[in-house]
Every structure is written in structure tokens, then in C-alpha cells.
Specification:
alpha+beta, Four Helix Bundle (Hemerythrin (Met), subunit A), Nonspecific Lipid-transfer Protein, Chain A, 4-stranded mixed β-sheet, two-stranded antiparallel sheet, 11 helices, 6 strands
Length: about 270
Amino acid sequence: MNASGVVRDLVAEGDEVDGLVRGLDTAQWRLPTPAPGWTVAHQIAHLAATFRMAALAVADPDRFTAMTARLGADFDANVAHALAEFLAEPPDVLLTRWRAERARAEQALAAVPPDRVVPWLVRPLPAAVLASAGLMELFGHGQDIADALGVRREHTDRIGHLVAFAVRTWDFGYQARGLTTPDVEFRFELTAPSGAVWTFGPAGGDNRISGPAVDFCLLVTRRRHRDDLDLTATGAEADRWLDIAQAYRGPAGAGRRPGQFATRVG
């Protein structure tokens, strides 16, 4: 994907998520989402906290590094702490703060070269890759919100940044479970919403994953179970990977159950 366009696409994806929550009443902000214990408000609070960290990582790397050095080993406790101040706000204030944090991160990312390496939670990343990670967050948490509201999303080729990010971090599923990362190269052949075919990895690879790119994104964000997606694995390790794939480094969580969504809204 074009690194120079990733911030523009990040902004557009953020606008799409904003449109999901714009105009919701208080009761709708409290609706449960498929993530156990998380309401619509939790999803936006998480995005606000994540984008605040991204802005700090780009604009003030030393402060970001000092902040992350103070984090404890309990991942869930760190997340709860980051969300708490945002969840304490009424919905209109939470929405305003989420927009402000988004804007700061977008502006910070747009102000640096795409290949500028910045610190991040797992390992340093080029700014363009961090922006792609932001798109991953928007896709996943936006899907949870859409599922809570019963909204069908229409995706564009912007998701190509998420696809490339997931291919780059293909080993996260193993690491999150304490598994040894196998010495293999995957071949990915994924069909974009536009109909274009995106390919990654050796053409003659023994382990291949193919199917719609949207389904691939739903898989790696763990918003759908593999049984409910039109993805095909060729090779034993590719088949195993479809069970554990994730594009984030934190705990895998329970994911989604087979057949949990009788009607696909992704």
C-alpha cells in the first residue's frame, strides 16, 4: 500500500466510525457490544486512549517511552486504567474528547515522514505502519460498534493498510499464546473490495491463505470466527494460523463463536 496515503485513509476510516456514533442517545452509548463487558462507550474510550498514545509516540517519543516504562505487567489493568477517565465522561463529552485525540494523532502522523521510526507498545515502527495500526484499531472497534447497532458496514480499499499490517505482524498470534513461531513463509492472496487482488509472500509457498480481504480483516481483528468467513487455507501451518491469527500483540481473548452472527453485517 502507498505509505504516503495512509494518514489520509486513517482520517477517512475515523470519519466512518464517527458516523456510527454521531447522534446516538445515552441508551445507545450503553448498548453492549460483542466484546464481553464492553459497551459502545468502552469502544470509543479505547480508541480515544489509543490515539492519544499514538500522538504522544510521534510528537514526543521520550515522553512516550517514559510513560510506557511505568506500565505494569497486567495488560487488562493497563487498559482499564487508560479507559477510566474517558468512561467517566457523559457521552457528548466522550465524543468530543475522542475527536480531539483523533485529530492530534492524525496531525502528528501527517507532520513526519512516513518512514520515520517512532516508539510503540511492542516495538518501534515507521510512522506509516503506526498509522496502519490505527486503521486496524478503527476497523476492529468500529465493527464491534456496528454489530451492537445492527449496522452493515461498507468497506473500501482503505483496508489494504490493515491487510499489509496483519501480514507484517503475522507472528503475533503465536507470540500472544506463547507458541514457537514456525520457520515458514505464508503466501497471501486476498481480493480487495474493488476486486483487485493483493498478494504477499512467495508465489510458490506451500502454506497459502486466500479469500476476500474484508474477511481476512475480520479474522485478524478477531471479530468473526474463521468458520463464518470465506477464507481458504492450503497447508497444515496455514490452517493452524487461521485459528490463531491476530494483528495485535495483546491477549487473544475469546474471540467470536462459530455462528455467532447469523446474518453477516461486516
